[in-house]
């Protein structure tokens, strides 16, 4: 029975250990984060946050970037960012399509960036004299601070992995290693560098699951605490506000919560406290959709794009799980340890985890497999599977615990974790935009699509081939790009050397941000804006030191007795 009792296992030293995982992951993320937005979705989301602060509304306006985005949308340009014109009476307004939860969550960081700008006006002024991809630039420090949202949320997810593993009964060292490995040996690191909403949706879903584990512990002792019930509901509601496509996973966790709450003398009051925040978030979304687009059924993305569901679901499934350039087993190799963590669940908390993991994984995987763009476009790893990854990683935590007593499993786990780290490092040293820019331009030298097909379909087919080909596979092509940069010291890349294509063509990155190390925030600040790099270095070193101190303190054999 899902609602069977479970004994609470989280103590003060476990929370200290979880904070050590957070600080350690955040140190790496801060050292390698991208700073400015790396994709159109991220910039549109930022401009929504900016408009909320400056204009007290959702319409994009008032900055060079917002005005440029709005002009592209009004002109009907096929390559316009993800935004659209308003509904009746608001046709001249332009609103962002990405979830409003992403924009709202960034407001505190945006405010901090505005405050930092007051102390470094020279950097802001120099930034405002530059342009990017044809649009003027503004609000440098606001961008910089909002860019820390995904690193922070990814590190917080690693913290929750440690706590959830301890609630499952995983011993302390294995739980800590699980949190670190989630953050540093999976594509969660690469996604932490991005500006897309997958990271926030992942955090919200897993935060809800952690609250569910707490609810089960509380129900075993008596009534569930109202704050835990509200936290569970708010996390799921905010997940929907952030990324509507995770709605099936939200439903799966709601069903699990209903079973937990009703298993032992449940009450309608408990269910009401769970439902209230979710209904409030849903009501807010419907009202805002009506105000912006004239209908509660209009989300801002409009009708499905042509060919959005036109691909093969079997190719998509195989690609999401095992494609050389995107597959889960390559972008998070230690996920294979999940099979060793599936010892027969004996306690209610273990059965609850297994139910939630399978339900969430299927709720995330199957809709993604229905998409023609199952690969997630110009991103590193199968980003659509990210919301399911921390759930699966608890199985890895259980396997790491078993590995202490099984030498063969320990060697396998060590190899997979090292391989995972080798896969993630090049995602930070060579920006995924650089890789995809070169790969897309090199692909026609390897393959040709029938000319009678529409241009968009030809491009889609070539892009899919890139993900399925070993010569173009992202981690290893990244390493070859890095080797060329270090050995030769230029930005001229022979197609034959990088992608193993029989061609004498050489390519250079299209945009300045994609050249060299310019994609790293602290290097961009120093080179382009003559700003200081020491704050980033000091912050990263301080976080790493804090993580080490906290880990040593929590792993002290005497800590478990305190």
Q: What can you tell me about this protein's structure?
A:
The structure is a single chain. The protein folds into 3 domains: 12-33 and 149-300 and 312-426, no CATH class; 40-146, no CATH class; 432-518, no CATH class. It contains 25 helices and 6 strands. It has helices at residues 12-32, 40-54, 64-75, 100-105, 107-119, 121-128, 140-146, 149-167, 172-184, 188-192, 198-221, 226-242, 247-263, 268-293, 313-322, 328-331, 348-369, 389-403, 407-429, 432-442, 455-468, 474-488, 495-499, 521-529, 534-555; strands at residues 83-85, 94-96, 131-132, 135-136, 493-494, 506-507. The strands form 3 sheets. The chain has a two-stranded antiparallel ribbon with strand order 1-2. A hairpin with a 2-residue loop joins strand 3 (131-132) and strand 4. The protein starts with 11 loop residues before the first helix and ends in a 7-residue tail after the last helix.
